[in-house]
Design a protein that fits this description.
This protein is mainly alpha-helical. The protein has a domain of 42 residues. Helix content is 66%, strand content 0%. It contains three helices and no strands. Helix 2 runs antiparallel to helix 3. The chain starts with a helix and ends in a 7-residue tail after the last helix.
Length: 64
């Protein structure tokens, strides 16, 4: 059971760090930068425009 408590502590710490880094104030700028970068020529995988927009705007993606 000690490992479970450690995982909870680690998860809580990660959530705290993400909350500090991904503030609501900077969300629109992060989305704009992500869309700009995703539109540049890059890797060989193909992602349609709708999927790129969804990935940039999906609120829960920051929780991954």
């Amino acid at each position: 059971m000690a490992k479970s408590a450690s995982k909870d502590t680690t998860k809580d710490k990660l959530l705290e760090l993400k909350a500090k880094h991904f503030t609501p104030e900077g969300r629109e700028d992060r989305i704009a930068r992500a869309l700009e970068i995703l539109s540049l020529p890059g890797p060989s995988f193909k992602v349609d425009k709708e999927t790129r927009i969804w990935a940039a705007q999906e609120a829960e993606i920051e929780d991954i």
